[in-house]
Amino acid sequence: MSTDTLLAWASKPASRRMMSMVGLPTPQPLARGEGPCIAEPLAERRVVLGGDDVLGPLISGLGAEVVTESEEPPSALVFDARGVGSAEGLRALYDFFHPRIRGMARCGRVVVVGCPAAAAANAGSAAASEALLGFVKSLSKEIGRKGSTANLLTVSPGAESGIAGPLRFLLSPRSAFVTGQALAVSTSTANPHGAQPLAGKTALVTGAARGIGEATARRLAEEGARVIVLDIPPEAEALTALAEELDGVSLPLDITDPTAAADIAAAASGRLDVLVHNAGITRDKTLAKMDEQRWDLTIDVNLTSVIAVTETLIEKGAISEGGRIVLVSSIAGIAGNAGQTNYAASKSGVAGLTRYLGCQLAERDIAVNAVAPGFIETRLTHAIPFTIREVGRRFSNLNQGGLPVDVAEAITFLSSPGAGGLHGNVLRVCGGNLLGA
Ligand code: NAD
Question: Which residues are the active-site residues?
Fold first, then answer.
């Protein structure tokens, strides 16, 4: 639950006008997805498509009306820039977006599709591929005050079928708090996108008694997964209540326990389709004042146990083929933060682990990716002093903090069959937070 008073005021037209007049920030309430995913998330929406038009059928398949021009404000602008092979060719971006961006609806979506610079055939093409990121990041800052997002999807040659799932996520309301980011599709994948994509799958979420973990368990269950919820034994009561509500299984267990991997494998009857490493702690102090227990515990819970549990489950063959592993990093691990040398080191470590495992396990058809949340409204952030909390919220493109469900949506997407082409991505779910941007 958010305690963001400015956002609450800005939700009412009268107070919003007043806030504008006195120069207060007026964050746009975000349109979010509700309930389980549906086969056509863009039904009754209009998407203007530019550049190569090969994505037209894919976007129509999401229920959208795909047009090249629109008199009504479109919900999304999609530009396929894979044909842009030189610096001069970037002019096509200007020609497409300049006349249309002002007319895009509130909480709109911009998606630019490109090739990875590493796959470029010459210098101009490499520069043009990389230029797309600067373009998207800047545009996301310009349109964020209207609650709109802009993201880049790069697709390796031969991985074209892997684009459907990420495109669906980035164009839908499920990605409300993801902006200014790039996702790399590196392998092809099948993309069944009917209702309940996780039906018949078993998913385990660590740190699930509250906050982001609880929201994730709820979303995974909503998409059909049988969910095992894990948290420390003192949280057993909340955990059991959640497991009962979700018709899942409660596993009160400290993730640092040497038997954790074996206990998880047993609870999953030896076969886990989705593993979400969400449990995490902070033990903040500047390095000079930090005792060794704070350092050791933070690294142990946030990183060492994640490596140990994952490696053991892989060795045991307990992660099924087509499995998904989602880790939770943090923008503190990307930007660093005074008083958080231990936490930021652990979360950078998680990002490194994600890239390594993403690469290693791709050939076994297991997709490993991470989310890096920014300022999310949880018990953790509500405890921060008011001024710092306000900075955390407002210093972002969307001018507000995210909700646990925003991170849960990204994790649910990365857990889905449609994310099978993504390997080693660290996706910031931060509303375009300026920290480390
Ligand atoms: P939270 O404190 O509300 O929840 C974390 C959960 O992990 C708790 O239920 C806790 O009991 C559990 N946990 C802690 N140690 C454990 C252990 N040893 N074994 C098993 N469970 C354990 O935190 P949150 O805000 O929901 O954060 C969830 C994750 O997101 C964490 O990894 C955190 O670092 C990361 N994150 C959060 C934010 C934010 O703004 N809230 C920002 C960036 C990253």
Answer: 343
Give the position, in ligand 1's atom list, of the atom nearest the Cα of 302.
32
Confidence of residue 4 (pLDDT cuts 50, 70, 90): confident
Question: What's the distance, CA 353 to chain centroid?
Answer: 17
Q: What is the pLDDT of residues 243-261, one digit of tens each?
A: 999 999 999 999 999 999 9
β-bridge partners, 426: 370
pTM, 2 dp: 0.97
Distance 279 CA to ligand 1 centre (A): 5
Q: What SS3 string covers 110-140?
A: EEEEECCHHHCCCHHHHHHHHHHHHHHHHHH
Show the ligand 1 pocket: residues with CB < 6 angstroms: 206-207, 209-213, 231-232, 235, 254-256, 278-281, 301, 328, 330, 373, 375-376, 378-381
The answer to whether 236 and 285 have CB atoms below 8 angstroms apart is: no
**What is the tens place of the pLDDT at every residue in 118-161?**
989 999 999 999 999 999 999 999 999 999 999 999 999 999 99
